[in-house]
Amino acid sequence: MRLIKKILKITLFVISGIVLTLLVLLLYISIRKDDKEIRKENYEFNSSLSFDLEKYTQTINIENEYQNILVLTDIHLYGIFDNKVYKYVTKMVNEQSPDLIVLDGDQCFTPFNYSAYKNLIKFFDSFEIPWAPVFGNHDNFGKATKDKLSRMLTDSIYCIFQYGPSNLDSAGNYVVNLSYLGNVVHSLILMDSNDKIGFTGNPSITKEQLEWYEWVIKGLQNTVNPNIKTTLFLHVPIPEFNNAYNYGIENGSIIFGGKGEKTCSPKENIGLFDKIKELGSTVSIVSGHDHLNCFSVDYEGVRFSYALHSGYGSYGSKKIMGCLVYKVYGNGDFGEVIIYYAG
Prior knowledge:
Layout (H helix, E strand, L loop, with lengths): L1 H29 L6 H4 L12 H4 L1 E4 L4 E7 L10 H14 L3 E4 L9 H13 L5 E3 L12 H9 L19 E7 L2 E9 L15 H17 L5 E6 L5 H12 L2 E3 L15 H8 L2 E6 L8 E4 L2 E5 L15 E8 L4 E7 L3
Parallel strand pairs: 1-5, 2-3, 3-4, 6-7, 7-9, 9-11
Antiparallel strand pairs: 2-12, 5-6, 8-10, 10-11, 12-13
Helix pairs in contact: 5-6, 7-9
């Protein structure tokens, strides 16, 4: 009888501790840091807006025959006790010597996202390499809103993040052009795939973002080159990732990697892939979000690729952790390879 009472007492103590911790975290998150002024500093988008390459995009030069882009995703920093992740990422950066680093979402998943981003910015700036992040569905969970996180990113020394349109109910929709010998040869389209309230969910881009994507592509085609090639980076994979994988299996055309879980795409298909095929510019889509998927396959004229899970802060297998190395050549073509760094 005494043993039962003791077990019940310990159980009640543990449950009370968990409830108290959750209440403290909810209170902490409710006092959110924001910076609404950043919206006022950026442009309002509408489909009739005249496209201006210099005003609405930014350009970096390909110094050699190709631009070596290191793509990391789902680092999942906590804001505390992240030294192991930083050592892991440092190894990849040092060995791959990239010209540009793209972070494809879920840089953190923590109530302490303000601290996580503060440390993240200091860490990536230390490499003195341009880096371009997009938000994932978990970055917004915490004390700092996307507007606040965006301000932190734009104040960074080497981060080339741009807030983008102020009226799309998302943050970080922007364009990075790659120029070779004075000519833009390839453009990177970075999009916020949004987030849902709670710990899980596979959110979708909005119809307004789809309109922005079309405006960008047509603008690039009209001002740069009607045959301009583009790569789309967004965290949550679009529904056609599953179709692409099945096609690759049926035709024996998987370029590399494999599938270890279901494709975690949004239930609603907003029609992004149809628009991609219609406009004929985007030759590659790179996503994260699914920690156990890491395949690459050509499907209906577009390369579908996962970047590798690059951190320890969530589920996954250490055997398939690492990075995606993405190369853009002076003629606008691209190449890629997945690099496994066992965690």
